[in-house]
């Protein structure tokens, strides 16, 4: 009987991104529909339809509002279906993968009109379903062995050829090894490749981190990147919290000059804006502290912490990427979070966490 291959870490991350991003897209779409009748949105639609490229179509603000409403409904329906199909990803459903791929254009349009900046999470998750080693896992091929073979080939290609110093004769070729004797009938064949992991029986305890052997370098580097990025985030958020009151005053004054109607529509006061900034800074710092704890648990051998940390890292990278539009140094933080998430989903890391 062929041993069933474990699920790759990329497949687990893809399912989490699809489910989480779909839920966010549904909420963003309905939030967008709820604000279509506000004065600010209607004024923005008026500017859009007066654009020279769209003025020839003869559209009005109400027509454009109806188009946005329809696309939001379509995007929300596609996201609902994607969230349900995302559960089937963990069951290696080929039809779910094909259906998710077919929903990609509707998800993209829904995220485009609903201002859902985390919508790319869903698209990235769907793309991961078609990349290695998830593609081999869906096809029923032994992806662990193929990954080890590809890794060995890359290492062999990077290893420099042996060279001789000038003026010295080349080293004599090593004698060919004697052929191994043919195995006799009934003799067991020698095992090749990595030793298989014995199956886990019911009631059998899980292996400890010490019993699994040395930690993969990818796991150690991912934890270091997580701790470093979390420390930078806590320091930056703490520094921002000290100036939250002054920052809130400046933002409120700018909004009063440029968007007075929006303040009247939402009845937003300066104290509420400052409180919101404090909440964002404190919430971000707690998120970073939680990621630090998850990295420690993953380092100790808890697989659930690794999965949650990978999802958290992908979400944090998406949020940081959004704020890079206003603060470009956050690109460094995005790179650190993205690299840590990628390292946590490496196949050798997933194999180390196997029971």
From TrEMBL:
It comes from the Bacteria. Residues 159-214 are annotated as: Disordered. Keywords: Membrane, Transmembrane, Transmembrane helix. Residues 167-182, 191-201 have a biased composition (Pro residues). The chain crosses the membrane at residues 12-30, 66-86, 106-131, 221-244, 277-300, 307-340. This is Uncharacterized protein. It comes from Nocardioides simplex (Arthrobacter simplex). The lineage of its organism: Bacteria, Bacillati, Actinomycetota, Actinomycetes, Propionibacteriales.
């Amino acid at each position: 009987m062929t041993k069933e291959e474990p699920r790759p870490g990329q497949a687990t991350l893809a399912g989490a991104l699809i489910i989480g991003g779909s839920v966010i897209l549904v909420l963003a779409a309905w939030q967008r529909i709820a604000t279509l009748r506000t004065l600010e949105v209607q004024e923005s639609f008026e500017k859009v339809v007066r654009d020279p490229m769209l003025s020839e179509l003869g559209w009005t603000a109400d027509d454009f509002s109806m188009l946005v409403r329809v696309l939001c409904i379509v995007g929300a329906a596609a996201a609902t279906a994607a969230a349900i199909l995302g559960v089937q990803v963990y069951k290696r459903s080929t039809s779910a993968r094909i259906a998710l791929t077919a929903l990609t254009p509707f998800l993209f349009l829904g995220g485009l009109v609903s201002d859902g900046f985390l919508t790319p999470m869903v698209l990235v998750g769907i793309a991961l379903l078609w990349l290695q080693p998830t593609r081999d896992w869906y096809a029923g091929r032994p992806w662990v062995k193929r990954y080890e073979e590809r890794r060995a080939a890359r290492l062999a290609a990077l290893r420099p050829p042996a060279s001789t110093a000038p003026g010295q004769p080349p080293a004599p070729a090593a004698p060919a090894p004697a052929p191994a004797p043919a195995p006799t009938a009934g003799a067991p064949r020698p095992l090749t490749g990595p030793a298989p992991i014995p199956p886990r029986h019911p009631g059998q305890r899980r292996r400890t981190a010490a019993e699994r052997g040395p930690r993969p370098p990818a796991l150690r580097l991912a934890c270091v990147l997580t701790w470093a990025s979390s420390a930078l985030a806590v320091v930056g958020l703490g520094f921002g919290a000290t100036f939250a009151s002054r920052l809130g005053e400046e933002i409120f004054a700018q909004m009063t000059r440029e968007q007075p109607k929006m303040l009247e529509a939402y009845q937003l006061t300066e104290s509420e804006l400052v409180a919101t900034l404090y909440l964002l800074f404190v919430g971000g710092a707690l998120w970073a502290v939680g990621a630090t704890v998850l990295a420690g648990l993953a380092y100790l051998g808890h697989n659930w912490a690794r999965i949650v940390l990978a999802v958290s890292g992908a979400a944090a990278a998406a949020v940081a990427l959004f704020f890079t539009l206003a603060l470009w140094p956050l690109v460094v933080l995005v790179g650190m979070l993205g690299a840590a998430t990628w390292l946590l989903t490496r196949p050798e890391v997933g194999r180390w966490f196997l029971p």
